[in-house]
Design brief:
single chain, 361 residues, alpha/beta, TIM Barrel, eight-stranded parallel beta sheet, 12 helices, 8 strands, Divisome_Glycosyl_Hydrolase, signal
Length: 361
């Protein structure tokens, strides 16, 4: 089960009360006086080995015609990758990064896993769901392991780039409408969901600041302890970006929807990562927001990036409930507020492709 399916299955909802809103155009937003730049879109796919080559040729030709230039594949399927490439679409390998629950890894290196403020390890006490097994980003062995994984992916000639998912800490706070699902009140950061307090992280922080985070009265309120953890994830991304650079292939990431939400909920400071582009998952239905929020979230991300690299707005197709007018509106809002394109997750059928073409004009 991937992250998006987990969020759907538990009914992820609001971080804020839904209010009617008016999209605010960013400084980079297109106006009638500016020439329109052709959008380049993306899709997330879990490839099905049952698909025939003929089916894939037809499907990916239609994708290309609709303006899709990149596909992120969640599994390694040479057949799918090559079919995409033959149709002029870049084929990226989409990998789980910090959330790694492989049985072999758990058995051989339980010491690599993150610990919460209570001292419980993800190896033995996964938070929320059984597959939430988060590695500690401070351990050199973990960074080296992830670099080896990236090297194995990027060394394949049919892989055009590396796409990072779960490149963060565990969710320290869930949206409020999920609290009843787990019988918890997260109006403050609870120690069992606050990671990583392993010995390595505590020692490294103490070297810098002279205090063990566990000796603080309220470590969850410490700006420097929070920044330390932002930097730990940024360091992982930096190392993986170096591997991608050596192979002369792009590195991208799926991240939480806005810089503020990403830092607050999962310690993810993506505006400061050395990426080639970023795909914030602006899944408005998950946050109980209306379609206008897509434009607002894009504007916040674009403004936070200051032109460092392009932003592609991640849209969750089931959130639109088959309403193609809303999907068209969401795509247009993303483009008007500075997105280089959109990245779609869900069933990309002919109607969706037609809407994508219509909205991109």
């Amino acid at each position: 089960m991937n992250k998006r399916n987990f969020l759907k299955s538990v009914g992820l909802g609001s971080l804020a009360i839904m209010q009617p809103s008016i999209p605010t155009l960013s400084a980079s937003a297109k106006t009638p006086s500016q020439p329109a730049k052709k959008a380049r879109h993306r899709v997330w796919i879990n490839p099905d080995e049952k698909d025939t080559v003929a089916d894939l040729q037809q499907r990916y030709a239609a994708y290309k015609k609709a303006g899709i230039g990149d596909i992120f594949f969640e599994a390694d399927s040479e057949k799918h990758f090559r079919a995409a490439k033959e149709n002029g679409i870049m084929a990226h390998r989409w990998i789980w990064t910090m959330n790694r629950g492989e049985k072999e890894l758990l058995a051989s290196h339980p010491e690599w896993y993150a610990k919460n403020r209570k001292g419980e390890s993800c190896a033995t006490h996964p938070p929320y769901v059984q597959y939430y097994r988060w590695l500690c980003p401070s351990k050199p062995e973990v960074v080296n392991y992830l670099k080896e994984q990236a090297e194995a992916v990027l060394s394949k000639d049919y892989v055009d780039g590396l796409h990072l998912d779960y490149v963060r800490y565990c969710d320290v706070v869930l949206p409020v409408n999920l609290w009843t699902n787990y019988g918890i009140d997260q109006s403050k950061e609870l120690p069992e969901y606050d990671f990583c307090y392993c010995e390595t992280c505590r020692e490294k922080y103490k070297e810098k600041k002279g205090i063990d985070p566990l000796e603080m009265e309220h470590p969850d309120q410490s700006p420097s302890w929070r920044r330390f953890r932002y930097e730990r994830i940024t360091n992982v991304v930096t190392n993986l970006a170096q591997v991608a650079k050596q192979h002369k292939k792009p590195i991208t990431a799926a991240v939480f929807p806005t810089p503020d939400i990403a830092k607050r909920i999962v310690r993810q400071d993506w505006t400061n990562w050395p990426l080639d582009s970023v795909n914030p998952m602006i899944y408005h239905g998950f946050y109980k927001e209306d379609v206008n929020w897509i434009g607002e979230a894009v504007a916040e991300g674009v403004n936070g990036l200051h032109g460092k690299f392009p932003l592609y707005a991640g849209l969750y197709l089931p959130d639109f409930k088959g309403n193609m007018d809303d999907l068209e509106k969401g795509i247009r809002l993303a483009l008007q507020n500075g997105a280089a394109g959109v990245s779609l997750f869900g069933s990309v059928n002919t109607t969706v492709l037609d809407t994508l073409k219509k909205a991109s004009v």
